[in-house]
Design the sequence.
């Protein structure tokens, strides 16, 4: 079909927007491999900044991974049964429960972090452990798990399947694990990817909740941007991209419509 | 039978509700109380609007967030409708790149702005080449504006595309056959149909910009936006009551914006359907 002038104008505009979003990413990737970014690529390419990042910040990378997995485990245990109940008994009470559980997304992370510190900061061992960060991440990500699973469970009548299973003598646990969970699988997968992605990138809460011993990757990034040379910050950002981009591609594949509301900056 | 089942269902939601009550509701209540029991007492909440320093921060944060929201809606509206309507080589790749920044934390977005508009940034290089001097604006309100656009555009594009998918082409054909020009079609057919999506994603964009901390933290901690002021009051000045009061005000603003948009966009959607 023929392309009008209008088409090319809009295409040009969209490409400009894309350039605004992608060029800095490419620049930072190049900077991470460049000997001296102020001179430019002609100063030579090197892996030494990656090595420096590894020496300085490797613990933050592993800590972010295990906090993300712990957050995932907790949100699965809390979120999947909750979504099931919300889908099973749609009504005022469950609606209120849902509203209550998704509330943390509507409040800035900084405010939630201050609230947590003022309430639980006195418990020294808790305050200084990674569990304190875990609590913040669970609050922030649980709504995405609940909504993702709920969306799938609300899209078909799983109750009929459950009733047939019950009439064949299947007990509650068997019905839940054998029918509800497998049928909600796509929502659980999309929710899990969202939770892990958000947890790995969470900064607003974590910056307030962390201690020098419980630094996570984004906290380390802020530290490197503030106190290290640009190349080190870039190399560290590259490590973050390597961790987050596979998750994002998986998310785009498994839950395009579901990620539109994620994230805060 | 049903009663037993109800008990089981109740037991299944208890853990999530308990976690929410213990680590969200209770701390927020505590935050509100702390805000009201500092040296100023409950007056601390009033001080948010009576102290010039706080009022200025509040207003500049609101103005910045409104500007970001309006600009994002225009940019993402054009790009989103275009991408939904047209199929061309490389569209999928373009879409992936446009949604890539979705998972970037605020700090990384701040760093991206430094890459673009910092002291060795791309924009500075270009303007230096053009002979108009090195343009550096990353560490100012303009840098924050760029950063907030950066994280808002991907999210809004996805919402707009989902809404544009449901547009009925017959309505546009009808408008055109009745003699409406392209702008009239946009104004009278496309925009009203996208209104719920624009309101919903605009509200998310505004609320996110109001509460954004990481980007501002990376670019400059002396930019007076509300989250930075809260952070400074809390950590540097140890003015904990004021930080708590400001946090509560900020939380009420973001929550009310999102709740209002859902009420309005929900009603519009119902009316349209």
Sequence:
């Amino acid at each position: 079909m023929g392309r009008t002038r209008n088409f090319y104008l809009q295409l040009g505009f969209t490409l400009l927007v894309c350039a605004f979003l992608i060029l800095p990413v490419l620049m930072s990737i190049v900077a991470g491999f460049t000997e001296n970014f102020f001179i430019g690529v002609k100063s030579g390419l090197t892996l030494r900044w990656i090595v420096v990042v590894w020496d300085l910040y490797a613990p933050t990378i592993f800590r972010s991974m295990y906090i993300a997995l712990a957050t995932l485990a907790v949100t699965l245990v809390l979120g999947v049964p909750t979504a099931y109940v919300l889908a099973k008994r749609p009504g005022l009470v469950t609606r209120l429960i849902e509203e209550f559980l998704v509330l943390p997304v509507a409040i800035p992370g900084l405010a939630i972090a201050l609230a947590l510190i003022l309430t639980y900061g006195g418990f020294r061992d808790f305050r200084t452990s990674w569990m304190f960060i875990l609590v913040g991440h669970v609050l922030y990500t649980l709504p995405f798990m609940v909504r993702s699973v709920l969306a799938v469970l609300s899209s078909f009548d799983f109750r009929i399947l459950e009733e047939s299973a019950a009439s064949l003598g299947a007990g509650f646990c068997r019905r839940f694990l054998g029918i509800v969970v497998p049928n909600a699988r796509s929502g659980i997968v999309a929710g899990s990817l969202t939770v892990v992605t958000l947890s790995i990138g969470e900064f607003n809460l974590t910056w307030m909740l962390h201690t020098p011993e419980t630094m996570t990757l984004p906290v380390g990034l802020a530290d490197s941007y503030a106190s290290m040379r640009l190349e080190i910050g870039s190399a560290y950002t590259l490590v973050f991209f390597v961790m987050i981009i596979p998750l994002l591609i998986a998310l785009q594949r498994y839950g395009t419509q579901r990620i539109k509301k994620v994230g805060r900056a | 039978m049903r009663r037993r089942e109800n008990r089981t269902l109740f037991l299944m939601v208890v853990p999530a509700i308990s976690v929410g009550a213990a680590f969200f509701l209770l701390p927020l209540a505590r935050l509100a109380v702390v805000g009201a029991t500092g040296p100023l007492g409950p007056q601390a909440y009033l001080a948010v609007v009576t102290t010039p320093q706080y009022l200025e921060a509040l207003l500049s944060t609101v103005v910045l967030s409104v500007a970001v929201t309006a600009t994002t809606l225009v940019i993402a509206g054009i790009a989103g409708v275009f991408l939904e309507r047209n199929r061309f080589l490389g569209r999928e790749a373009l879409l992936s790149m446009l949604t890539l920044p979705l998972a970037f934390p605020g700090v990384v977005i701040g760093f991206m702005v430094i890459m673009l508009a910092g002291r060795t940034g791309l924009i500075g290089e270009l303007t230096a080449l053009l002979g108009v001097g090195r343009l550096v604006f990353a560490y100012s309100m303009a840098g924050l504006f760029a950063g907030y656009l950066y994280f808002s555009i991907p999210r809004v594009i996805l919402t707009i595309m989902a809404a544009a998918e449901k547009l009925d082409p017959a309505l546009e054909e009808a408008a055109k056959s009745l003699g409406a020009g392209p702008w009239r079609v946009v104004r009278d057919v496309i925009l009203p149909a996208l209104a719920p999506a624009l309101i919903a994603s605009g509200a998310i964009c505004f609320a996110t910009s109001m509460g954004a901390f990481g980007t501002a933290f990376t670019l400059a901690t002396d930019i007076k936006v509300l989250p930075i002021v809260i952070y400074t009051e809390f950590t540097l000045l140890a003015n904990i009551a004021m930080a708590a009061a400001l946090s509560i005000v900020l939380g009420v603003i973001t929550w009310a914006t999102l709740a209002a948009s859902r009420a309005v966009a929900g009603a519009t959607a119902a009316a349209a359907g």
About this structure: Residues 48-88 of chain A form the longest helix (41 residues).
